[in-house]
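ZP: hey, is the adenosine-5'-triphosphate complex queued? I don't see it on the tracker
AM: it wasn't, my bad. submitting now with these inputs:
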Amino acid sequence: MRRAHTGRSKRSKISSRKGTFNPEDTTRVKHTRLGVWDLYEENAPELEYVPGSSKLEALLQLKNNLPYVWRMLLDIGSLKSCWILLIAYCSINIAWSFVPAVSLWYTGQLLNVVQTAVESRTVDKALLARMTLGALGCKLVERLLQYIGSQVARPLGSRVNKHFGTRLFEARARLDVVTFDDPAVQRQLDSVASTNGQGVAWGTISMFTSLIAMSLKIITQVSVLAEVLKNQRDGLFLAFLCMLPTLSDYMDLLSPGSFPGRGVWAATTKNEAFITMAGLASFINDGAHRKELVAGNMAEYIITSYKQAVKEAGDYAADFWESVRDFWNQSGTPARFFRDCLSLLPQIIFALRAVQYPQDIPVSLASLTLITDTSKRFAWALRELFHKTGSISEQLATVRKLYEVGHIPNKVPDGDVPFPENEQQVKAGITLEFRHVYFRYPGATDFALQDVSFKVPQGQLCVIVGSNGSGKSTILKLAIRLYDVTDGQILVDGKDIRTLRLKDLRQAISVLFQDYTHFPLSIRDNIGLGDPPNATDDDKIRLAARLGGAEEFVDRLPEKFDTYLRRPVQDYYSSLPEGTKTLFGRPVDYNSVRNAGRMGTTSSSSLSGGQMQRLAVSRTFMRSVVSEDSQVGLLLFDEPSASLDPTAEHDLFKRLRLLRGSKTMIFSSHRFGNLTRDADIILYMNDSQIVESGRHDELLKLQGEYARIWTLQAQAFLP
Ligand SMILES: Nc1ncnc2c1ncn2[C@@H]1O[C@H](COP(=O)(O)OP(=O)(O)OP(=O)(O)O)[C@@H](O)[C@H]1O
């Protein structure tokens, strides 16, 4: 049998340097193997050997998290009618929790009727009728309360989920690139997204309400059960025996080592086969790869590779949480075996007692049924309660996170100097200067830029050329402060870029990335978002589309500017595969339902690569060109014409050249012709450095790399 082994005993000889994570250093980090996963948990050596310290820590955390629950309640109270709905929801649940006890009382009375019948051979029919009606009434009330509860829960849950969903949306929307890319931040965001499909806030409310209801249910049931059973021979004893399995479960829950622990932990897998499996699965599931998959005849190869990977990954290759569950299940096996034996005890004791007092068998049989029945329900409630209490602190910690994710600090800190000082300043463009800039991407070992220095004065046109991976795009990303320099300085109109207010800086710069994407919104929104304050101005959107060369083909689309390139909400279909036959031989054909609902056969409208690029250019123009009151002084274009046909490229650059003198422009490009000849400054990059710079004529005279590539490209046009 596979065993999970811990690395705790394997003390590392390698001393850990401060700030360096060493997975072998078990004094700081405990390593556990879970299937194909390696789990690393931070040790808390100062507390580890103090008995009960982990429970104490959890309690302290619980106390610290409580204020957030209060804050959440106040927030919910501030929503329309939510106080009233919340009070109604809690009251209904509390009322509902009393019903089983009343029902139990009626069942107890029925037992008395049976006992009297056995002893005196007479039945009190009126009492029997009353008790039966009472028991039925209880069921009715229980159902009714459940129904009213669900009617109240619907609007309440929906309002709470919407409110906190919006908060979470805000929290995600405000994060910068570096912060959002951090997997720890991703995990934090995911952990508050939902619990069991519910929003965290609503999940907490329903959890607490059911916890209170459950406690009340248990207390009232215990009181009634004790009252009913006190006169039954062995009643209380049998009830206790029925509870034993549940109690053993509770001991299980109390045992240390909840897993993974509450503290800091991270898990990774290095199992190549498992990683390949996951990659191939995502490859075939993501529609974005379908064209290449089909055109490249890859299906057969992919299926074989997947089967091979499944075989190599072994039996225990599963996703992380499945592996955790698996680990749990294995570790609890002896306890579960013990529990199963315990559950037989009441029947054994009953049989022994029946041998001892044969005349009491009917009464004892009735009480046994009552006791086992009630105890089972009761034990279930108790179990639920234990489970829920076990996750209370986790739930509260999630509520706290729900508020904290709104304050995750961005890794690119905001500056406080307003920019520009006066609006006229940007009207003639922005001066951009790099001074001895070194830059390494987060997590990378190599520098993407090394000692890069250049200056582009106001209103001038700069073109960056160079080989793949030489750092051209990186310069543009640093100019808009997606990242901060590792060393050196970037100046915008003479001021250190890090001191400027980010919002102002990004308002003054318009950028078109090489790897631009289109948003899962309509074409209108895709262009409009280039300038959020004017995003709903249809005239400006149309003008931007005209300037970007997109207007003509958009107008030819059936839904014009309302077209979605990819519908963000999918249509749903039944699971019968088209072209097959139903059980009764009818062919499965979706056309009739599809036509009735005016649904399409595809969820995306395909545009050509060049059309996509025209849309992206239009979005950039939306901000920088269309508005007369545009605050943009610097335009950054990363390969803006890579997918454009020669006419479109010519027209685009002609339009852009007109902006010279009023906007500073920086292009990254592999094409030397149209732009470089007119550029005020050309930067030729190689291997993360600027190796040549100057005007076109100057660089040709230099007879360096630029001249070599220029000649290479020019030769293509020579006879
Ligand atoms: N997000 C990233 N994380 C880590 N490294 C990156 C990242 N983006 C780029 N790099 C690396 O930085 C270096 C410079 O990349 P950059 O994109 O600036 O090159 P480029 O000159 O624009 O290339 P191309 O002509 O192919 O567009 C490359 O070595 C690249 O691998």
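AM: back. Residues 441, 444, 448, 466, 468-474, 514, 668 surround adenosine-5'-triphosphate (CB under 6 Å).
ZP: great, adding it to the tracker
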